[in-house]
Amino acid sequence: MPSFAYELKRQLAARLRNPDSGFRKAELAGLVDAAGTRDDSGVTLRTSSAAVARSVVRLWRSEFGLEPRLAAPEPDPFGRSRYAVHVQGNRAVQAAEELRAERERTLREAGPAGAAYLRGAFQGAGSVTRPGYRRGPHLEFVHADEGFAKRVTALSRAPLKVARRRGRWVAYAKSADGVTTLLAQMGLDEAVLEYEARAVVGEAKGNANRITNFDAANASRIAAAAARQQEVLEGLDPEGLPRALREMLELRLEHPDASLAELARLGGISKSAANHRVRRLTARAG
Q1: Where does 4-178 sit in CATH, by number?
Q2: Domain ranges of the chain
Q3: Which of 15, 42, 209, 215 has the most crowded Cβ, counting Cβ within 10 A?
Q4: Residue 189: is it exposed, middle or buried by C-beta count within 10 angstroms (0-12/13-18/19+)?
Q5: CA of 202: how far to CAs of 105, 132, 173, 216, in Å?
Q6: In what helix (H) or strand (E) does residue 171 lie, and over which residues does it extend?
């Protein structure tokens, strides 16, 4: 079964299928910094995620017109498949320099470009514990380069600590607030709700001798997240909202257990539009 971190990386990679996704170069810069190596022939990026490998191929094509070579997967020291995406030639070397410039611009400006860089960095060098993990929440970026750890720390809205561990640099957050703040910054809003709900249920399970029925716990997590959102949104005045937000508010209140995909279908809109409207409603309610 894929890990929680693996699934989040798959979700981030899938976002780039959307033609309206912005700041692609900043995201590719984060990916290359996190998991790439450069030499005189070009750039090679290695990842254990097939979805991330496909995303990198799309990014090189869309942003630089390069045709990457995707090597056959090989096992890593842990027996997991590892993919290598390689671009070569003078244009690839030039593209790598452009990505360095993009990274420096991102560090100066931060904002949405900074969030995009972090999305790439997490896909290449990030991990996060599953919600309700018995040792508590933990999100980290691990890299051989101290400069990379300092960059993600500078761009993160959540305070990250930097330490050296087994010859590598680690930038990490160990609080629930820190983890969910960083997940939200990367645009993983559904994961934030799931993480918070599962963390609440995980604590309840610990106080009740750690009940292990996964199905029952999963239902409780979803119910807890839906109940919190329902309570927040019920305080909004529909008359003071734009039509699109008013319609989404009515849908959410009428269907508290519906997923974003179901809300999008009921409203005749895309899932990303439904997600955007729910986020705006939640911001207004806050």
Answers
A1: 3.10.28.10
A2: 4-178, 189-285
A3: 42
A4: middle
A5: 41, 4, 19, 12
A6: strand 168-173
